[in-house]
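task queued by scheduler; priority normal; single chain, no ligands, no partner chains; default sampling; output format set to structure tokens
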Amino acid sequence: MKIIKKSVAILDLFLSSDGDLSLEEIAKLTRLNKSTARRILLALIDCGFMKQTKRRGKYSLGMKFLDYTKALKQHNSIMEVAEPYLNEVGRIIDETVSLALWDGRNAVIYQSIYPSHPLKVTSYEGRMASLHFSSLGKAILAEMPEDELRTHFSNNLRRYTQNTITDINDLKKHLINVRQEGVAIDDEEGFQGVRGIAATLKNNEGVVVGALNILGPSIRLTREKIRECIPVVKDYALRISNALGYNGEKKILG
């Protein structure tokens, strides 16, 4: 059991890493000695869960995870229900459209549809979304009880741009507005030149299961354009929720 937990601890590092990691970095971050970390990494490489580009090189996730991603998509009812709606939103707004699923701890991008523009924002499938600055993360956080936010954040939040909310109390105030509006906006809070809009998806029990998210370059997704897109995002998030059994009142766009 201990070796399984150690293996998972190593794999979890790559969920938040921006790139490959060396043996020294892995050992330090997991607090494992180097020999133990090396033995686990070799076993994970043999199973296809990790790869090493060259001898003594850095480590990265292996292709085996793509098999699990494919299987998860094929057997996920939310994905099956939501996909035609995602395609419709993509045609209407013509920007990157993503569906993220929420497991109670993490918001993970499960499907993305891209516009035909040469300049577009990429939303990688399988990547965890940061909660305190991304539109989909903030949409989900707004549904949480205030005391539950403490389980996800300390007082100081990491800054990514000059627009990032870095104080937990400021975030709480911001989430009140998100809750009232029913939609969250990322105004270049994670990446300069990128804006986003998101609304939550709920199941037949009224529980948040994910979020519908729009991303685009700020040169096209202007604040005026965002105001135009908000009703569409809210409407289609509700349509998907209704299709999942949610009994909320359906809003019809004029």
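post-processing summary
- The chain has a mean pLDDT of 86.
- The longest strand covers residues 208-217.
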